[in-house]
């Protein structure tokens, strides 16, 4: 996936008013500031929305 600005992840596409959109199962790793690798942007956004992590880099940590 291409991101609107390098170093940022747009998590708004994974939410609709009042509900969450299920994450796709494709592999496109993202590294979070917690040094964990997330399988894709959507999985990263689930935890990011809880205020626990931020984007560190594309790919594995």
TrEMBL record:
Alphabetical list of SMART domains matching this protein: KAZAL (SM00280)
Record's keyword terms, sorted: Disulfide bond, Secreted
Cellular component per GO, a single term: extracellular region
Pfam families: Kazal_1
InterPro entries listed in its UniProt record: Kazal-type_SerProtInhib, Kazal_dom, Kazal_dom_sf
Domain Kazal-like: 5-61
Major subcellular site: secreted
Record bears the keyword Mitochondrion: no
Location(s), subcellular: Secreted
PANTHER family listed in its UniProt record: SERINE PROTEASE INHIBITOR KAZAL-TYPE 7, SERINE PROTEASE INHIBITOR KAZAL-TYPE 7 SPINK7
Protein's name according to its UniProt entry: Kazal-like domain-containing protein
Organism per entry: Ursus americanus
Higher taxonomy: Eukaryota, Metazoa, Chordata, Craniata, Vertebrata
